[in-house]
Amino acid sequence: MKNKKDEQWEVLVSHQSDLLTQDMILTSLYRFNRFKRWGLSFDIPSVRYDHGTGDISYPAWLFDEFRNTELSKEQFKALVRMLSLEIERYKRYLEHFKKQIKSPKNKEKKIRRFFEESMMAVSGIPFYSAFETCLNKKLKKEDVDAKDIPSSVTDTTLASLALQNIAHKHQKELNQLKIASRAISSSLTKDLGKFCRRFGYLGMIYFKGNPWSIEEAFRMMFSADSGRNKMSPRKLNSFHANIAAELMKLRTQTWEIMCYGAYLFRMYIKKYFNDDFSYDELIRLRMHEVFDLIEGKYPVIDKTRERESFILEVDPNGVRFFLQEKKADHRPIDTQIQELKGIIAHPGKAKGIVKVILSAEKSYKVQVGDILVAKMSTPDFLPAMKRASAFVTDIGGITSHAAIVSREMKKPCIIGTKIATKVLKDGDMVEVDANKGIVRIIKQFQN
Q: Which region holds residue 369: left if phi is over 0, alpha if psi is between -120 and 50, else beta?
């Protein structure tokens, strides 16, 4: 193997999260995953999370091994079975945890148990991206397009439908609100409050972010989908299409259940520890530091202030943490390229103004009808995705978040362009032709 300094790394996933989330995921990868079972030459892969960019990278040699690994039908079945059982196990645990958080007794013990259970639940996350290329090859051989893969109902879908129903029920009031600014009625407030209690957790991305508020739900309702462009996938007699459908459903459910777990954890911390430290400071710690903090062994959180930029890295020796200087984002814009190509996640066409979103905190930039351009999307992008008319990403395969949500929202989506965030900039007018997998620049924005 090459010296680590000489290794080339390739980005497989990209999203900016918090230190606590990434420490939990990478620790679970180190403790619970064994890749040799799936025919690979290693058990614990080397993985690097760069908080400055949000990039999750693997050494190039390891990435190539993922790309060239062929899973058998039995292995795909075993993978789906393993992931399904873990989700169901974690759901049962969270129902138990939901009851536990009503009491302040044994707080430290409950939190340690929460992280242990959560680590087992997130241990399956790397498998979705690792074997996506293998699955794509199988689908290509069977002449299956992403748009033809059957879709499933998840909370992400149900949340969109719930907003549509609320919008339909209160259409008269919404029409009046578009004309004149006034307070929303108690009836609409009640319905939106009920929506937030059921689906508000989707506003989080693991431990980061906040549950959706009534105000956020109200804004999303104005861009609720009307159900246009609905398409029925053709029925396929394809083993791998059905596996892809299962993995897409499971990946969404994994995101959802992890966000829900974090939502309950956040509620518990704010209820019983809010006078001791802030939740935002807590998620800038590693797991062992959280345990020390809640047990009174770590009274000062000053060191979190220096953690604006860091690297977490897992290898066969464990998980290591490095501070690094925060670097300004200087994305080179290539003004010569007028057309980008990618993978069709959901067909259709849309024209609009580009909004490049490198982190969910910038999602407010996306207005109704804009084209959302990102490295990858995550659940906390959902409000912006409801407003956007189409999605374009640098990274991702058919089980990526953008691919799944585009199918559920019936919006044009092109994934895996590799360079969209480096070529496109805010204000560019583009056409997303997701029937051909092409993004055309109609007019470049001039500063």
A: left
